[in-house]
Design goal:
314 residues; alpha/beta; eight-stranded mixed sheet; 9 helices; 26% strand; globular; binds adenosine-5'-diphosphate; binds N-acetyl-L-glutamyl 5-phosphate; Acetylglutamate kinase; AcgluKinase_fam; ATP-binding; ATP binding
Amino acid sequence: MIKQTQSDTELEEKGWATAKTLAEALPYIQIYDREIVTIKYGGHAMGDEAVAKLFAGDIVLLKLLGIHPVVVHGGGPQISAMLNRAGVKSTFVDGLRVTDDATMEIAEMVLSGAVNKEIANWITRAGREADVRGVGLSGKDAGLLTVEKATRIKKDPDSMIEQVVDLGYVGEPKVVDDKLLRTLINDPEHDYVPVIAPIGVAEDGLTYNINADTVAGAVAGKLNAKRMLLLTDIAGVLDGDKDLIRQMTVSEARQLIEDGVAVGGMIPKLETAIAAIEAGVEAVVILDGRRPHAMLVELFTEHGAGTLITRDPQ
Ligand SMILES: Nc1ncnc2c1ncn2[C@@H]1O[C@H](COP(=O)(O)OP(=O)(O)O)[C@@H](O)[C@H]1O
Ligand SMILES: CC(=O)N[C@@H](CCC(=O)OP(=O)(O)O)C(=O)O
């Protein structure tokens, strides 16, 4: 005979609370059943290895709950650290890294090599009991991402004359070939999770560096994802008073860029959110990926997390 102790009672209480949480998630699990959710995992969000492993566990959970997660990752801080070590200087224009030959070589090494394979491996390890497997890809695999050279126009603050800024090997996705992604997602026998590095190829065969937010938006749009989650290092989008915006429309997002409230890395995030929604994605959420289980809070609870961006009311 084994008698109930105080610690048994506490564990039992915890079990009841867990069961309640699971039951409350049921309506949300049904909403996302067999839907594609694109997750952009930013370089800042993946900084802490323990949290990164929790992220991999959450991706496995999504897959086992019947959702199809597609991960697009960044690695900006990791590229900067490697460039620093190599003594290569880096500059940014509107959140985009100006990319010359040396920068391109290091960016591809870091993104398609170290970061991509690490995330795929974490997912595979987190899912090994259920045979969920992360598959690391870059835009170079199976013609996934064809790009065109990106340019930016800047106004000279003194003369107010507009100038075209050459960003070097910075690309913008022109064609997303989703054949391989769909093959992986729909494989009837295996639970594959595509993990995509933001590297693409232009028509002339040259390699280009792409902002990871932009890739996530293009992939989410092509796959008609139900949601795109942009995991970053801030609670969400902040307004002019530095208060968190809980929800906004595409027009309001555009206004934040115009007003200069969204600057730096937030610009490609909002631009990609707008483009993805216009391409058919139902909603985009910008949230803090450093917080453990941020994706689960967003997808499976009533309040959600971060900033939700939706289309303008008709
Ligand atoms: N209005 C804004 N609200 C929130 N963050 C903003 C805003 N404008 C600029 N940012 C900056 O954008 C950053 C997120 O972009 P970035 O550093 O490129 O993230 P990631 O590496 O995750 O892609 C935030 O840490 C913040 O410094
Ligand atoms: C053109 C461009 O800016 N490319 C990015 C690609 C990585 C990225 O976007 O990483 P985060 O999402 O972590 O910022 C870069 O070189 O930093």
